[in-house]
Amino acid sequence: MTRVVAQGTFDLLHPGHVHYLEDAATYGDELHAIVARGANVTHKAKPILADRQRRDMVAALDAVDEAHLGHSEDIFVPIEAIDPDVIVLGFDQHHDEDAITAALGDRGIDCRVERASGREPRHDDELLSTGDIIDRILERRG
Ligand SMILES: Cc1cc2nc3c(=O)[nH]c(=O)nc-3n(C[C@H](O)[C@H](O)[C@H](O)COP(=O)(O)O)c2cc1C
Ligand SMILES: Nc1ncnc2c1ncn2[C@@H]1O[C@H](COP(=O)(O)OP(=O)(O)OP(=O)(O)O)[C@@H](O)[C@H]1O
User: Fold this and answer.
1) Which of 52, 93, 96, 122 is the most buried (most CB within 10 A)?
2) Where residue 73 sits, what CATH number does that domain have?
3) Is 24 a pocket residue for ligand 1 (Cβ < 6 Å)?
4) ipTM of this complex > 0.90?
5) How many domains does the chain have?
6) Given ligand 1 and candidates 31, 58, 74, 75, which is best to mutate, with the most ligand atoms within 8 Å of its CB?
7) Residue 27 sits in which domain range?
8) How far apart are CA 79 and CA 71, in angstroms?
């Protein structure tokens, strides 16, 4: 049984999220998604939706076997509990593969790190970014 981990903020789900999770699932038999705590999202605007709602929506997707809310202080605590064989990073995630591989090694976790593919829009009006969805809401309803 090969366990895979994918992770992200997953605010206001869109087809890019579904693509990422479906791609990550192809790396093994069981996909675990870790949903970032809003308090830990510091590299961009905080999510609109609550931690639990984002976790519940990710858990409802076919590709996902289990969705976990992330740890509030140490991102390697859920990894130690899940004990994955592979962590699949999103195509544009700022995390560095080598830094994560080194941190996993320091903790004695035997797990490789891969990078998912991106997904291009399939029609003119398709939005594949939470930030773009929010911009459109503000433009049309603000
Ligand atoms: C291996 C790994 C494990 C993570 N675990 C957690 C966690 O336990 N708690 C958390 O709040 N964030 C965790 N994160 C960080 C968030 O998922 C991070 O904010 C996320 O990568 C942001 O990506 P996004 O901007 O693509 O949504 C983890 C990231 C990685 C790479
Ligand atoms: N178009 C896409 N193709 C493939 N993966 C995507 C796409 N959009 C987002 N993802 C992946 O989904 C995961 C979670 O993305 P995140 O929650 O940051 O959403 P986002 O829409 O990219 O956000 P924002 O627009 O606020 O930057 C990340 O790993 C990201 O790489």
Assistant:
1) 93
2) 3.40.50.620
3) no
4) yes
5) 1
6) 75
7) 3-141
8) 10
